[in-house]
Design goal:
With about 150 residues, the chain is α+β, with helices and mostly antiparallel strands. Helix content is about 20%, strand content about 40%. A hairpin with a 3-residue loop joins β1 and β2. It holds the Pfam family PNPOx_N. This is Pyridoxamine 5'-phosphate oxidase N-terminal domain-containing protein.
Length: about 150
């Protein structure tokens, strides 16, 4: 069997790498499920505020409908080799009730303010409870970098 050349990173390095990607990346896959309609997955722009992931979607979207019925979500950064997966519960904020600092930061990052649109939007806030990060099979062991909402070092 050939070696992949991957040297497993210590937990502190994986955590630092995840935080750097959260600051740099733009898109995140959001997986939701509805008791009657089943699973749904969609990429959304996201913003990391240092504690939570913020996203925005149409108020009538399948994502918003699913989160209202079942707030547990899974999130993933879009790289199948440098994997980062999040678990948490989503909280919905109608565009007229979202905290101003979050909405302003979102608008500043993307140059788009959903509150100024004609349609209704909801902001989704997910505080991760569990985060897993790994690069290839050699890093599967020790892939949890956040447990119970606390970063591991």
């Amino acid at each position: 069997m050939e070696s992949t050349g991957i040297v497993p990173r210590p937990t502190a390095e994986r955590t630092r790498d995840v935080l750097e990607r959260l600051a740099a990346e733009r898109d995140m896959w959001v997986s939701t499920a509805h008791p009657d309609h089943g699973p749904h997955q969609v990429p959304l722009w996201f913003m990391w505020d240092g504690r939570a992931v913020w996203m925005c979607t149409g108020a009538a979207s399948a994502t918003a409908r699913n989160v209202r019925a079942e707030p547990r979500v899974r999130l993933a950064l879009p790289d199948s080799f440098n994997v980062v997966l999040f678990q948490g519960e989503a909280e919905c904020f109608p565009d007229r009730e979202v905290p101003a600092d979050a909405a302003e930061a979102f608008a500043g990052r993307f140059g788009w303010d959903p509150r100024a649109e004609e349609g209704s939007f909801v902001y989704l806030r997910v505080v991760p409870r569990v985060v897993r990060a790994w690069r290839g099979e050699p890093e599967l062991r020790g892939r949890v970098v956040m447990r119970d909402g606390q970063w591991l070092r």
